[in-house]
Every structure is written in structure tokens, then in C-alpha cells.
Amino acid sequence: QVQLVESGGGLVQAGGSLRLSCAAYGGTFSRNAMGWFRQAPGKEREFVAAIKWSGGSTGYSDSVKGRFTISRDNAKNTVYLQMNSLKPEDTAVYYCAADRRKLRPAVVATVYEYDNWGQGTQVTVSS
After folding, report:
1. What contacts 55, CB < 8 A, 6 or more positions away?
2. For the chain, what is the radius of gyration of the CA atoms?
3. What is the pLDDT of residues 66-120, one digit of tens each?
4. CB 35 within 8 A of CB 114
5. CA distances (Å), 51 to each of 89, 124, 126, in order?
6. In angstroms, how far is the first alpha carbon of the chain from the final one?
7. SS3 content of the chain, % helix, strand, coil (to 5)
């Protein structure tokens, strides 16, 4: 069973930056798109960003577009989320997950299209 492990979360002031990592252990997701999602207390899990299996296409939610950047290094089995200009409303637990379908030609943004969820990493942005 391939496991995804997120890291890099923490406490940061508004306007600051964090870089999240998502590493795959016990296998590879080089043929799967990868996504980042987040869940704030009392809210549903929401899409943040996704990257195609080849890295050639990305997608972002409107709330993070222009501030966050997703990337991947298939040789290291790792996906990254660079978060800049953080806002208090970015506070949430951030999860990475793999697209259920291999070699999908485009990224998707719906939770049910992903599985192999990691345990999450907490991001807290203070005002």
C-alpha cells in the first residue's frame, strides 16, 4: 500500500510563506495527477491545487490562484505546494492525494476523484 506523507506545515504570520511537501512511500504516483486539498474546522474539504501526472498542466482554486504554486519531482516521488502571501483564511489542515485514474489527460478538482489521502499537515496563519 502506497502511503502519502505531508510535511512543512506550521504557524506563520499573514503575508508569510510556507512550502508543503507530500512524499510517497512504498510505491510511486508518477502516472497519477496529484492534488492538494484543505479542510478548516467546521467546513468541508476543498480543492486547492492539482498537477498532471507529467507535470505539464496545473489547476488552482480561485482563492489561491496567483499565490500558491504546485510542483512535482517524480524522481523523488514528491509533490510540493509553495504558499506565498498567506492569509488568515488559508488556515486549515492541508492534505495531498492521488488521482484515482492513471494518465488522466487533465487535472480534476473534485474530492471523490482522489484517494490515498495523507494524514494532513496543519497550516495556521495569524493576523
Report:
1. 71, 72, 74
2. 13
3. 999 999 999 999 999 999 999 999 999 999 999 999 999 999 999 999 999 999 9
4. yes
5. 23, 24, 28
6. 40
7. 5, 50, 40
